[in-house]
Amino acid sequence: MYPSELKYTKDHEWIRLDGAEARVGITEYAQKQLGDVVFLELPDVGRVLEKGEVFGTIESVKAVSELFSPVGGEVTAINKALVERPEAVNSDPHGSWMIALKLPAGTDPSELLDAAQYTELTR
Questions:
Q1: Using an 8 Å Cβ cutoff, are 23 and 97 in contact?
Q2: Predicted local confidence at residue 123, as pLDDT
Q3: How far is CA 32 from CA 36, 50, 62, 90, 107, in A?
Q4: What is the pLDDT of residue 122?
Q5: Whole-model pTM?
Q6: In angstroms, how far is CA 42 from the centroid of its own chain?
Q7: CA–CA separation, 30 vs 103, rounded Å?
Q8: Which residue among 65, 79, 89, 100 has the highest number of C-beta atoms inside a 10 angstrom radius?
């Protein structure tokens, strides 16, 4: 159910690591808990985030939730298309990245969950 090439957090964000770069979004589990997403607020490019820091908010017909950075790093891009059409998260949460991060040297993603661990968490 959860793509094996992604890592996951207990806060229900996913991260795709690619060397010193990463992309972040929310999991299908999070999307189903939220319901239909209608609004997305993301940080400015250049903002430096600490691991666990709130980087934005996501609003659905049910609730407003904070988004947490799975790792520390500098925001190098936001998905402007997703901000304009946040409902895309509803049909493809694992394909709808929100922010791109440049990771500092020595970033340790070992606390992130793999797909099997995340599946177990969400049972």
A1: yes
A2: 93
A3: 8, 27, 11, 8, 30
A4: 96
A5: 0.95
A6: 11
A7: 24
A8: 89
